[in-house]
TrEMBL record:
HTH luxR-type domain segment(s): 318-375
Gene3D superfamilies tied to this protein: Winged helix-like DNA-binding domain superfamily/Winged helix DNA-binding domain
Entry-linked InterPro entries: Sig_transdc_resp-reg_C-effctor (IPR016032), Tscrpt_reg_LuxR_C (IPR000792), WH-like_DNA-bd_sf (IPR036388)
Name used for this protein in its record: HTH luxR-type domain-containing protein
GO molecular function, one term: DNA binding
Gene Ontology BP terms: regulation of DNA-templated transcription
Species the sequence originates in: Thauera terpenica 58Eu
């Protein structure tokens, strides 16, 4: 196939590869077929001091070579003196190595696994992330050596691979940030339900799913957030409609609306309906329009229970308390009186009073009210 024809068949895979679950999996197979190669490898991470690279590979059917063992041999015997090892290559560099190499160790490996020639290309994106593309031909191929047309194809792909790698880096940064924010929301026990501009549910995070599963009065039915309490449902519908209406009018001043489901004698859940951030070039369809935060208010103080072992150790570490002092501090912060806390701990009230004085001194506070305030401010570290 001419260079232009092969290039056209590959360019879509280059850019689509940045968003694939296994990045560039379709590209490596398409490139293998285009260059009649036995193997194509895209290495996404290389470190000299690690046991193996992170890569994506396409293989010719029936390939039984243990490539992990080949890599281990390369790292142990060849990498140190290899002028084409990944960290020494310059972006845009395309190099060839064939079985006629004068390096006896490399020649022996080529013979052992039946390689005729390998082509390696280094690609980089502006922030500094690099990847390497290796194309391997077997001596059994009709054309065991790469041609000028093959090299021209690789050079033509280089700038596009660089741009696609930049997109990949940006996507991965955004995915990492998203994962961090999601873990923060989950850490605080904050559920999140995203709705589109039709009020339909498009995403439910793990905390929200758990609250919905455990709270009979809340459900997702036919892509709608449904409350069994009629008054609460009407309030929720009005809040969602207000956010959507304000969004169509690009009114960024629309605040959040709070809705309560249940009461103090039941499982109390709070819902906060808020507009999703408005992105200028991403509207309609599955773009988030409304955020509904859910919080199980009846469970919000679980982290303060001394039965939560990690809470005791963390409050002790945070304020330099002994384990007994930390246990008492949590009992008092949970709302127990000094007598109730002493009974819970199985100690005399006078002993608990002496512990409390030490606690207040170490924490620099005056009494139980300050203890509750300071502990609640520290709850992020106790969950």
């Amino acid at each position: 196939m001419p260079v232009n024809g092969r290039f056209s068949s590959l360019i879509g895979h280059v850019y689509e590869g940045a968003s694939e679950a296994v990045p560039w999996q379709a590209f490596v197979e398409a490139l293998r077929l285009a260059l009649d190669a036995r193997n194509v490898i895209v290495t996404l991470h290389h470190a000299d001091d690690e046991g193996s690279d992170i890569y994506v590979m396409a293989r010719v059917p029936g390939d039984e070579i243990d490539w992990a063992a080949v890599e281990a041999t390369y790292r142990a015997e060849l990498m140190m003196d290899d002028p084409l090892r990944p960290d020494l290559m310059e972006p845009g560099q395309v190099s060839l190595v064939d079985r006629s190499t004068t390096d006896l160790k490399k020649h022996a490996i080529f013979e052992q696994i039946g390689l005729s020639q390998t082509l390696r290309m280094c690609v980089a994106e502006p922030s500094g992330i690099r990847c390497w593309v290796d194309v391997i031909r077997s001596h059994k191929h009709a054309e065991p050596l790469f041609t000028e047309a093959d090299l021209a194809l690789m050079h033509a792909l280089t700038p596009h691979l660089s741009r696609a790698l930049g997109l990949y880096a940006q996507l991965k940064r955004q995915e990492t940030e998203k994962a961090i924010y999601e873990s923060m929301a989950e850490h605080f026990g904050l559920g999140c339900v995203l709705l589109n501009d039709q009020g339909e549910v498009i995403l439910v995070n793990r905390v929200a799913a758990s609250i919905i599963e455990q709270r009979p009065g809340i459900a997702v039915n036919k892509q709608r957030l449904v409350l069994s309490d009629r008054a609460a449902q009407l309030a929720l519908n009005d809040a969602i409609a207000a956010v959507i209406s304000a969004r169509w009018q690009t009114d960024a001043s629309q605040g959040g609306n709070l809705i309560r489901v249940g009461d103090s004698h039941d499982r109390l859940v709070g819902l906060l309906v808020y507009p999703a951030p408005l992105l200028r070039y991403y509207r309609g369809g599955q773009s988030p329009c409304v955020v509904v935060h859910l919080s199980d208010l009846s469970a919000s103080l679980e982290a303060l229970r001394p039965s939560q072992g990690h809470s005791v150790s963390r409050i002790a570490q945070l304020f330099n308390l002994t384990r007994q002092e930390a246990t008492l501090a949590l009992l008092l912060a949970y709302g127990n009186t000094l007598a109730e806390a002493a009974q819970e701990m199985g100690i005399a009230e006078i002993a608990a009073r002496n512990y409390s004085k030490k606690i207040y001194g170490k924490m620099g506070i005056a009494g139980q009210a300050d203890l509750i305030r300071l502990t609640l401010r520290s709850i992020a570290f106790l969950r």
